[in-house]
Amino acid sequence: MDYKVLVAERIKEHVDISIERITNLIEIPPKSEMGDFAFPCFQLAKELKKAPNIIAAEIAEKINKEGFERIENLGPYLNFFVDKANFNKNTIEKILNEGDKYGSSKIGEDKNITIDYSSPNIAKPFHVGHLFSTAIGNSLYKMYAFEGYTPIGINHLGDWGTQFGKLISAYKRWSDAEALEKEPIKELLRIYVKFHDEAEKDPALEDEGRMYFKRLEDGEKEEVELWQRFRDLSLKEFENVYNMLGVKFDSYAGESFYNDKMDDIIAEINNKGLLVDSNGAKVVMLDEYNMPPCIIKKADGATIYATRDLAAAEYRKKNYNFHKSIYVVGTPQALHFKQVFKTLELMGHEWAKDCTHVGFGLVKFADRKLSTRKGEVIFLEDLLNQSITKTLDIINEKNNELENKEEVAQKVGVGAMVFTYLKNNREKDIVFDWDEMLSFDGETGPYVQYTYARAKSILRKLGTVTQNVDYSTINSKEEFELIKLLEGLQAAILNALDKLEPSILTRYVIDVAKAFNKFYNLHSIINAGDEELKNARLKLVEATAQVIKNGLTLIGLEAVERM
Prior knowledge:
The protein is α/β, with parallel strands linked by helices. The protein is built from 22 helices and twelve strands. Strand 4, helix 6 and strand 5 form a beta-alpha-beta unit.
C-alpha cells in the first residue's frame, strides 16, 4: 500500500483539487511526533474562503481514518499517523515480494530518453574528470530504465576538431612508432603536449595544425587514415576503463559521425534566415536573448562544436524520437548549450524545450592543477587500480581470511570512487581525498557496502524466516524510522530523475545504511527474547539488504555479500 496515495485520496474526498496537486503538497514532517505525513492547508484558503487552520480542523473531523492510527490537525496542518503494524507488514512484504524490482514502475513506458555522457576526447587520456560525466550518466541511465523508460546511452566521443590537425602535425614530426603501439594514449599525449610547447616558440605550427584539420574535413586519404588509427587505439584503451566501471553504451556516434550532416544543418539555418556574416564567420545572432552569437562556421570554413551539436540534436530526434534529451557535460559548458538549444528553438523545433544540460563541477587535487596541454593529467585507469590496491590493503588488515578478497577489493575500490562523485550535489566540486573516500565509517561507498554485507551476514547466521510474521512486535522508534525510509525508495528515485540529480538517491542509500546500523546497535536480533520479535526483525534485515542492493545498483555500484 502506498500511504502517500492513500492520504491524497482521503483528502480528495473533501476538497475539489486534483490528486496530483494534493500529492505534490504532502510533506514528511521533520519529527515523527508530528506525524508520518502532513498536508498544509494554506493553498486551500483562497479557494475555500476560510482560514487554513479552520480548513484543517474541518477535514480532520470528517475524514475517513481507516488504515491510520489517527489523523489530527495542528494549526493549518493535517497530520497523519499511519497504523504501524499494517505499515510495517505492507512495506516489508512488498519489498520482499518484489525483490530486485522493488522501487521500479512503468511510468516511463513508451518514452525514449537520450543521455549523452562520458564522451572523452580521442587520443587524450581518460582522466579523473571524465568519471564525473560517466558516473552521473550511467546512474541516470539505470534509474530511467528502472522506471520503465527506454534510455539510449550515447558516448558522443570528442573525435573531431582542430586538435586532430595539431595531432597529425605532431605525429608527422615527433612520433615514436614503438611507443605508440605499446602505450598509445601516453604517446599521443606526449606529442600533443610537445606540439603546444613548440607552438609557443613557433606560432606558424598552429596554422599547420589548422591546415591538416581542413584536409581531414575534406576527406584526404592520409589524414583520414591517421585519424582512424588514433580513434581505434583510443577506444581500445577506453574500453578497459568502461569494463572496470561496468558501463556500457548504445551508441559511440561521436562528433565525426555528423561530419557529412554539416552542410544540411547549415543550409537549414540559412533557409530560416538565421545565418549572418560576422567578420567572415557564419553565426546565429542571439543578442536579444543576452547571449553572444552561436558560431556555425569559422572564417576559415571549418565547423565547430555547436554545428555538430545541432546536427546531433536533429539526428537524435529523428532516429530516437526522444521524450527528453539529456547532455551530461561540465557546468562550464552551460552557455554553449543555452546557445545550441536557443538556436534549435529559432529553427522552429518545438522539441528544443525537451533538451536539457546536466552540468557538474570539477575534480580537484589539493597538491596540483590539471592541464592536458601541459601533460598534467591523472589517468583514471591508474587511479582506479590505485583505489583497488588501497582497498585490498585495508581488507588484509581488517579481515585477512576473507574469501575472494581480490574480487571484493575490485568492487569496493571502484565503487568508492563512483560513490564519491555521486554523493553530493553534482555541481559541487570534488577535492580528492583517499582517506575519506575509502573509509568504512561515514558517508562513503565502503560504509554502505559494508552495511549490506553485515545484513547478509546476519541472515546467513540466523537463517531467513519462511513462516508468517507478526509485524506488530517491531514497534521501537528506530525500527519504524528504518521501515519508513525503506518505503521511500521509489520516491527517492523519481525525485532524483525529476531533478536529474543522482546524489538524491545516493544520500537516500546513506540514510538507510545509517538507520539500519542505529537499529542494529540498539536492538538485538539473536537475543530478542521473543521468537516472533526475532522473526520480524530478521524480515526487516532482509528487506533492508534488498533496498540497499537496489539503491547501490542504480548508482552504479555492486553489492558485496561478504566483507
